[in-house]
Structure formats: structure tokens, C-alpha cells
């Protein structure tokens, strides 16, 4: 009796891409070569493990590329952000009353899974959230700003989608889980 054909799950993270691209990804998944390609392209994890280190990392990017943007009051890893139901990162404005004034504080939250991914993916999500300081909508101006800060932004976003697709198909990460005491 022949072995049943293994089919990968639906390509949730690649739904907006051309059918040819999706077919290539399916073929790589079925051949077991997608992970190998991603690991070869992104071999090492980053050293940003704590919320303080993430804040410093984000502020360095902000100060280099978006000096005139609104200040950030908080940047943290958030293990509650769920990849499928929510987002990989969020940018919010929190209004607080201080005396008789209303103060707006900007916060960036990055999904905790980025602790255990290569630095290029962390940079991509931080760039994405920083771009929201200037551009609210995901429009042409927003993506132009993303590519101004990180010229390989679109390739990194695509490769992150491949990484998430592989994780969805196999249930495991390519890079070892990193535990912190945060």
C-alpha cells in the first residue's frame, strides 16, 4: 500500500502572494527544504533578550531614522500577542490624565516569539512599528518609510512569512527557544 501524500497546511501567511510563489513554497515544504534555506540565510539569533535591551535597540533605530517622530515611552516584548489572532507587533497611543492635562504616550509591543528568531526579523518588526509613528495606514508612504529605514524590508517580511508558514506546518521553530526571566 503506497504511503499517503503529505500535503502542507494552507499557506495562511502567504495568501496575498501569487499562485506560482505559493506553489514553490508548497514544493519546498513537501521536500523538507524550506527550513534548510531559511537557516542558511539567517543562521544566527540576536542578543536582544530583555525589554530594556529591546527599548535601547528600538530607540537607536528611531534616533537614527526618525528623530522628529513622537517620543516612545515603552517598548516591550509581549508574550500575549498571538501570531494568528492578533499581530506580531503593535503600536498604540495610551492617553493618561496628568493633573488637568491629557498626555499621550506611545508604546510598541513586539511578540515574544521574536526573542528566539534571527535579528533580521526583529529589525523588520521594529521598523514596521516605528514606521507607524509617522504613517498610520499600511499604504505606499508607509512601505516607502519602511524601506527607507531597512532597504531589505520586503524580503525580510516575506522570509518571516516563510518562517511562520514552516512553523505552522511543522509545529517547531528552526532556531532554539531562548528562555529569559522577563
Net shape:
elongated
In CATH's first tier, which class of the domain at 44-170 applies? Alpha Beta
Mind telling me the CATH superfamily name of the domain at 44-170? Metalloproteases ("zincins"), catalytic domain
Low-confidence runs (pLDDT<50, min 5 residues)?
178-182
Average pLDDT rating: 86
User: In CATH terms, what is the fold-level topology of the domain at 44-170?
Assistant: Zincin-like
Residue fraction in strands: 15-25%
Cross-sheet strand order for the largest sheet: 1-3-2
Number of helices: 6
Helix percentage range: 40-55%
According to DSSP, the number of beta strands is 3
- CA radius of gyration: 18 Å
Q: How would you spell out the order of helices and strands?
A: HHHEEEHHH
For the terminal residues, how far apart are their CA atoms? Answer: 51 Å
Structural class: alpha+beta
CATH architecture of the domain at 44-170: 2-Layer Sandwich
Strand count, sense and barrel status of the largest sheet are: 3 strands, mixed
What would you note in describing this structure?
This protein is of the alpha+beta class and 182 residues long. The protein has a domain at 44-170: Zincin-like, CATH 3.30.2010.10. It contains six helices and three strands, in the order H-H-H-E-E-E-H-H-H. Strands 1-3-2 form a three-stranded mixed β-sheet. A hairpin with a 2-residue loop joins strand 2 (89-98) and strand 3. Helix 4 crosses helix 5 and helix 4 (119-131) crosses helix 6 (153-170). The longest helix is centred in the C-terminal third of the chain and has 18 residues, at 153-170. The termini are far apart.
